[in-house]
Amino acid sequence: MILFVIQKGPNLIEKEAILETGKAFKKPLEIIDFELKDQNDQLYTKNNLKNKWTILFFGYTNCPDVCPTTIFKLGQIKQHINRELPNINLQILFITLDPERDYTERLKEYLGFFDSSITGLTGDINKIVELTSNLSVFFQRINKEDGYDFSHTASIFLINPRAQLKASFSPASSIDMLNEDIKKVVKKTN
Amino acid sequence: MKKSLVMLCLLLSMTDRASGNIIIENSWVRAAPPETKVMAAYMTIENHSLKAIEMDIKKIISKGFTKTELHKSSHNGMITMEKIETLSIKPNESLLLEPGGLHFMLINPETVPLKNTAVEMLIFFKNENETEVVRIEAEVRSQKL
Ligand SMILES: [Cu+2]
Q1: The pTM is what?
Q2: ipTM exceeding 0.85?
Q3: In this complex, do B105 and A63 lie within 8 Å of one another by their Cβ atoms?
Q4: In this structure, which topology does domain B2-141 adopt according to CATH?
């Protein structure tokens, strides 16, 4: 199975804060309505993104290297932002690209092990694809002798309290640089 | 009889650090939840010899796992993970296996090893006329210290 996703991206021309690790959008991208489930089997929709800031990343739990590294990084970033900007409500959201293996119980076990403060979402693959297309995330299943992996767009996304995409970052950046850039965007908006 | 004696000597020479030209340090395996099918191992591998040495990747054994592969993750725009088939280390160079880059992929654990235990690995190297095996005990832990 190969998924090709038509890219309909946010307007990159209107840049706002100049970031070291990514880009902020002057005109934030509206996120489409979606319905997924979190690791506790509760319905999760666009409304759950409102009234808080969200750092969103995509991945899959059978990813032993990059995904746990990203989870670790984002956990550090969350602690830093909570300390520096205590009035900001910030959540971390992980959406699986592999709902076939990542059903809710598996997500719960995985996130419970690495960082139970992260909300993990799974659900119908078509609904996940609608969301990835909306955010210009590309992913492709790579079949192996024993199982399969994914290659996918690396970006980490920052969603504002109106459920709009406000910025995207490269996960390869250092924790310190990401901290600075995220604070820059949040402060400028609030 | 002779053969088994040679074998025994070979086994005895496999120490945690130097069994000759190769020194492996700071090895660790990232702890993972009980249902995990794949784990990653990281370390620094130093070639202290005057010759380039090749990793004999196909022979590598991780005790308690059905298979070990060498992988490389990259995240330049896309996150990908590719299998590495050949790798050589130049004289007096060291090779870093670290999160988000090169790693050993330990596949299909009998049971997922717990935090603070260790995974025994035998890592094989060769050049034209020598082979070398390094035995390590990679500690299972959450993140690089
Ligand atoms: Cu791997």
Answers
A1: 0.85
A2: no
A3: no
A4: Immunoglobulin-like (2.60.40)
